[in-house]
């Protein structure tokens, strides 16, 4: 069933310092075989340690130079448990010893211990590749001494429905599913068609109106407020497939999701789409622009339009400065937000989620450029309106 020979995948070609590729099928199979968080984390770290030096006979072989010490240092798992996890992965065929005439003893430029060929990383014949940011294992900046995997292992909150070991595993498997659906080029984050998003509904503004026409234009100002998060059954079922009871799976999904959110691994972004991505025309629906980034750090570098919309609304008389108490885009007490769309067609507000540690793939680069272009186009349209 398992193979050490991956299929070619140009889109997920590895970039030094950016990301590493993991076969999600293997993660699922590890859990299905009885593995738990220690084993999954060990596999992730060993995958991070893959050196893709080309071999004439097996040009796409995944050979890792990492071992138990790397697992211990980058996850917080004790060295003894790390060795036990490696042994379990070996016995169950998820890794193999990197030995044989065709396998070089050393990889890379160095001849020291850290460049030694250690493990062959197993892959399925038709891998479901996900690109994970190196920062998940290595950390970044001030977080290098406490990278995300280590935080999940050491600081996870105990759920009401499971043991600590289960909470760790749930968080890792939900995180892997989030990376699977993180289509930045198309959606600017987690694809809402996967089932994970937050809905917004029409709300009354300070004077009791939901829609205010912007005088002299074909646009209107729409008042909205957020509702609860939504998750389709298929998202939770794919992430936590090993939990058979529906109610328990749903409860543990939200515990895992909130743990990841508390760790700062993802954050909310409110977008305006031209149609409901989960509606009858959902396949054709596309984001128009990002309305607001609900994360202080991300707002410093990622484009959004709420301030521009308020400036236009004040200028056009569609919103009164003295009636609305505005702080960086919203009435804090009311939880209401505003967006602008064409009067005759309207738009669809929705909150999606973005992963903080994003793999430096082509998709991510295209996605951020598209985000900026959408905001630029609407800013230009706002600027062209004269009052």
**Poorly predicted regions:** 1-17
**Which assembly state applies to the chains in this document?**
single chain
Radius of gyration: 24 Å
Structural class: alpha+beta
Order of helices and strands: EHHEEHHEEEHHHEHEEEEHHEEHHEEH
What is the number of beta strands?
Answer: 15
Percentage of β-strand residues: 15-25%
Number of domains: 2
Overall geometric form: elongated
Number of helices: 13
Strand count, sense and closure of the main sheet?
Answer: 7 strands, antiparallel
- On the 0 to 100 scale, the average pLDDT is 86
> Fraction of residues in helices?
25-40%
Q: What's the N-to-C terminus distance?
A: 68 Å
Structure description:
The chain is α+β, with helices and mostly antiparallel strands. It contains 13 helices and 15 strands. The chain has helices spanning about 25-30, 35-50, 70-75, 80-90, 135-140, 150-155, 165-180, 185, 235-240, 245-260, 295-300, 305-315, 360-385; strands spanning about 20-25, 50, 65, 95, 120, 130-135, 180-185, 190, 195-200, 210-215, 220-230, 265-275, 285-295, 335-340, 350-355. The strands form four sheets. Strands 9, 10, 11, 12, 13, 14 and 15 form a seven-stranded antiparallel beta sheet that branches. The chain has a four-stranded antiparallel beta sheet with strand order 2-3-5-4. A hairpin with a 5-residue loop joins strand 10 and strand 11 (about 220-230). The model is unreliable at about 1-15 (pLDDT under 50).
């Amino acid at each position: 069933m398992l193979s050490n020979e991956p299929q070619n995948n140009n889109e997920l070609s590895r970039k030094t310092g950016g990301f590493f590729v993991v076969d999600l099928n293997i993660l699922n199979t590890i859990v299905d075989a009885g593995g738990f968080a220690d084993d999954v984390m060990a596999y992730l770290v060993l995958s991070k340690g893959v050196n893709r030096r080309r071999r004439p006979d097996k040009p796409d072989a995944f050979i890792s130079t990492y071992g138990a010490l790397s697992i211990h240092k980058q996850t917080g798992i004790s060295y003894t448990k790390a060795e036990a996890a490696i042994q379990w992965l070996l016995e169950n065929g998820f890794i193999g010893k990197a030995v044989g005439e065709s396998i070089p003893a050393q990889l890379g430029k160095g001849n020291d211990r850290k460049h030694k060929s250690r493990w062959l990383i197993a892959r399925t014949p038709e891998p479901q590749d996900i690109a994970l940011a190196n920062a998940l294992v290595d950390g970044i900046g001030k977080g290098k001494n406490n990278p995300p995997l280590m935080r999940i292992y050491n600081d996870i909150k105990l759920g009401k429905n499971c043991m600590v070991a289960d909470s760790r595993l749930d968080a890792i498997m939900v995180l892997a599913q989030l990376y699977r659906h993180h289509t930045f080029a198309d959606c600017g984050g987690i694809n809402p068609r996967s089932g994970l998003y937050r809905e917004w509904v029409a709300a009354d503004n300070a004077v009791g109106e939901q829609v205010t026409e912007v005088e002299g234009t074909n646009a209107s100002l729409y008042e909205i407020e957020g509702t609860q998060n939504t998750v389709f059954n298929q998202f939770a079922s794919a992430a936590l497939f090993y939990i058979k009871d529906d109610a328990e799976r749903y409860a543990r999904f939200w515990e895992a999701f909130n743990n990841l959110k508390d760790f700062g691994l993802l954050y909310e972004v409110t977008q305006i789409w031209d149609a409901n991505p989960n509606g009858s025309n959902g396949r054709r629906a596309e984001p128009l622009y990002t309305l607001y980034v609900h994360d202080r750090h991300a707002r410093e570098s990622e484009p959004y339009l709420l301030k521009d919309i308020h400036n236009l609304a004040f200028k056009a008389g569609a919103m009164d400065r003295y009636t609305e108490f505005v702080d960086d885009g919203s009435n804090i007490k009311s939880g209401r937000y505003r967006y602008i769309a064409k009067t005759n067609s309207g738009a669809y507000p929705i909150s999606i989620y973005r992963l903080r540690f994003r793999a430096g793939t082509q998709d991510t680069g295209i996605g951020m450029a598209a985000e900026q272009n959408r905001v630029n186009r609407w800013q230009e349209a706002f600027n062209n309106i004269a009052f």
